[in-house]
Design brief:
A seven-stranded mixed β-sheet has the order 3-2-1-4-6-5-7, sandwiched between helices. The protein is built from ten helices and seven strands. The chain is elongated, with a radius of gyration of 24 Å. The chain has 319 residues and is an alpha/beta fold. The two termini are 19 Å apart. The chain has two domains: 226 residues, Spore Coat Polysaccharide Biosynthesis Protein SpsA, Chain A (Alpha-Beta Complex), CATH 3.90.550; 85 residues, no CATH class.
Length: 319
Amino acid sequence: MKLVVTIPAYNEERTIAKVIGEIPRSIPGIDSVEVLVINDGSSDATVARATEAGADHVVSFKRNMGLATAFRAGLETALALGADIIVNTDADFQYDQAQIPDLVKPILEGKADLVLGSRFAGRIESMPISKRVANKFVSFIVRRFSGLPISDAQTGFRAFARDAAMQLHITAPYTYVQETIMQAARRRLVVREIPITFRKRADKSRLIGSLRKYAFNAGPVMVRTYVDYHPAKVFLPLAAAPTLAGTLLAIVSYAASGQVSPHVPVVSGLIASGFLAAVAGILAGMLGTQRRFQEECLYRLKKLQYDSGREQAKVPGNR
């Protein structure tokens, strides 16, 4: 059983070595632990510090590509390395890496496909009230959208079973945290949470420069993902409301005066709006069906790509 710990890092020379040094290399039920750093175009000594601290693998981008892209590269590289379990953590030393055994335990026991480290179910040393409120609000939205009883949708400390990792296909360029949860719900993966400790950060977050920027980038991802997976829930009310309003207006107008001519433009506009929303819903449903087929194809391609290499490696004489 192989565990690969992925660490996306952007200009984290001050903390990356402490994170790597804290990762346990011996875990019950795990035969080997490897550390993979995804250097997201750092301009400081992040790579040198990571290598000195004992990182087993480093993948580097020539320029900053964003957290979601770094996370996706880490997931794919870990699968190629033959990981049975993948743990993703941050490079800023806010998560306690000594809790990795607790994070992977539900997967080892066959009780979960994805395990989230919940800060709100555990202990938070420091978090500005604005970010605390924003995190809880976004978690509430993701909870309603996904139907999963999660308390912390924003956590970057999470563990994936190998097969679960192959079923997640990140499309957003900015952040992956909400999209992976909603995809996991769609794929009917078993998601669990464990309480974790969240430490105080010494400097400003590289990911969330401002709540306004984060909302501007993460909000559309959640809405788009929800529309992709639940087009009927979105477009049925949008189609029904104006159609019903137009029909009722026509009935009331006719009952009151015996004609609807004064309100014809309004009635026509409402009914036309409902019709267009219905057409949009049908198209969204068709696109959603295509997306499901594409996701299944991607999953099977990943299994062929990554699992075939593992099987060949097990054959005597292969190197």
